[in-house]
Amino acid sequence: MLIQPIDYFLVAWFVLAAASTLYVGFDQYRNNPEPVVMKWGFILVTLYMGPLGLLLYVLADKEPRPGEHEAFTKPLWKQGVGSTIHCVAGDATGIILAAVVTATLGLPMWLDLIVEYLAGFAFGLFIFQSLFMKSMMGGSYWENVKKSFLPEFISMNFMMAGMAPVMSFLMMGRDMRAMEPTELLFWGVMSLGVIAGFTLAYPANVWLVARGLKHGLMTERPQPAEASGHGHARQGHEPAGEQRAAGPHMRSDATTPQIAALGTVSALALAIGMAAPANWLNLRLSARDVGGVIMPQGMIMDRDTPADAMRDMAAADPRLVSASYGLAAKGDQDLPFRMENGVKVFELRPSVIRWHILPDVTVDAYAYNGQIPGPRIHIRQGDRVRINVTNALPEETTVHWHGLILPNQMDGPAEITQAPIEPGQTYSYEFTATQHGTYFYHPHAKPDRTQALGLYGALIIDPANPADEVAADHDYVIELQEWLVREGLTYPSMPMDGGMPNFFTINGKAYPSTDTIHMKVGETLKVRFIGTNNGFIHPMHIHGGPFEVVARDGETIPAAARFLADTVNVGPGQRYDVVWTARRPGKWLIHCHIPHHTTNNNAEEKGGGGLMVVIDVR
Question: What is the reported pLDDT for 250?
Answer without folding.
Answer: 64
